[in-house]
Amino acid sequence: MDDKNNEIFRQYELKVFNVYRARGAYVLETNQGLKLLKGFEGSKNHLDYENRIKNVLVERGFQNVDLYVANKSGELISQDSNGGRYIVKDWFVGEECNLRDIGDVKRAIRNLAHLHKPMKHISLSEEEHKHYSQIMLTTIYEKHNRELKRVRTYIKDKKQRNEFEATFLTIFNPFYEQGVRALELIRESDYEELYQKALSEENICHGNYTYHNIVFMKSDEATTNFEKALIGVQVADIYQFLRKTMEKNNWNFEYGNAILEEYSKESPLTKEELKLLYIMLLYPEKFWKVTNYYYNNKKSWISQRNIQKLLGISDQREVKDAYLDHLFKEIQ
Q1: Which CATH number fits domain 102-330: 3.40.50.11690, 3.30.1490.190, 3.40.430.10, 3.90.1200.10?
Q2: CA-CA distance, 14 to 66, in Å (whole number)?
Q3: Cα separations (Å) of 125 from 48, 133, 205?
Q4: What is the Cα–Cα distance from 55 to 51, expressed in whole angstroms?
Q5: Pick from 3, 10, 87: nearest CA to 43
Q6: Which CA distances in Å does 4 have to 19, 22, 25, 37, 42?
Q7: Which residue of 89, 96, 209, 305 has the fewest C-beta atoms within 10 A of its own C-beta?
Q8: Strands 214-216, 33-39: parallel, antiparallel or unpaired by DSSP?
């Protein structure tokens, strides 16, 4: 245990028995249960906002979240003698959700449905609405579509193209067309009404509901890492979890059906919400992400990993489209 950690430990009403590393942080075995110590680079306002959401969840009966622990001065952020900032929060022993195990997937989506209920009608300040509301998808899709066109123009104008660039031009059209279609559909849909309703009701999304933020304990689940929590339409969490699960399972209908069925058992989705989910899945987000990474780096040498990502997205397009067709028919 190094001196820097001891300097931080002394600022808390904790007796630390054991310390071990875990993903850029330290897990602490203490007299008050398991805790996590990690460096902190965010803002105090955001930390207070995030912790207030977690406190509301606990008050409403959703107990297993990684609440921050205040130090002896009552602060959530502690500082060492070199100016480094740290937080301590509650932590949990268990297994991460395995997205290839349909039992784990069902358990995780049920947990999300349970989580979403107490994340509605959370009283927030005008300032929090200003800083922590979702950006409208129409704005995002317009911007991303412009960026995709810009990258295509940039690559087409190059005299010599590397493997990534040649592959990008070959597969560009169908993905861009899906981006344009998604934007058309969302403009025609009830999305703006759903969005404004979510803001007025002060509903919160986890913002990063992925496998490594879901801990399966022996008889319960814990949900961690609310740093990306935003005020907005909770379908965004379902979309993120469903998309990542489907990508892991080559867009196997069984997983998609299970996710929507299990969520709806706890909290039925409206037709408008299902249509929004379809549009979000239609938008080629992963293609845009890989494209954006390439353009922002503008490297003459592109790693084989990024080329493989691009090829992987292309390889899954047919099975993804088949699932989208299936989902579209289901919601008619």
Answers
A1: 3.90.1200.10
A2: 16
A3: 12, 11, 17
A4: 6
A5: 87
A6: 13, 17, 13, 12, 20
A7: 305
A8: unpaired
| Sole residue written with tokens 């998609």 | 256
Total Cβ atoms within 10 A of residue 263: 21
What was the pLDDT predicted at 299? 66
| Mean pLDDT computed over 122-146 | 97
Q: How far separated are the first and last CA of the chain, in Å rounded?
A: 60
- 28-33: Cβ within 8 A, 24+ apart: 28/88, 28/91, 32/69, 33/90
The model's pLDDT over 158-201, given as tens digits with 9 standing for 90+, comes to: 988 999 999 999 999 999 999 999 999 999 999 999 999 999 99
Encoded amino acid at 310, one letter = L
CATH fold of 3-91 reads: Phosphorylase Kinase; domain 1 (3.30.200)
Instruction: Count Cβ atoms below 10 Å from residue 204 Cβ, excluding itself.
Output: 26
Domain spans in the chain, listed from the N-terminal domain onward: 3-91, 102-330
DSSP annotation of 251 reads T
Task: Determine contact, residues 214/97, Cβ cutoff 8 Å.
Answer: yes
Assigned token pair, 258: 């299970």
What Cα–Cα distance (Å) separates residue 317 from each residue in 221, 282, 320, 331? Answer: 33, 11, 5, 21
**What is the average pLDDT across 18-28?**
90
- Candidates 324, 290, 323, 314; CA nearest to 175 is 314
Could you give the 3-state DSSP secondary structure of residue 203? coil
Locate 146 and state its tokens. 């412009």
Are 246 and 255 in contact by the 8 Å Cβ rule? The answer is yes
Which stretch of 92-96, 252-256, 303-307 has the lowest confidence by average pLDDT?
A: 303-307
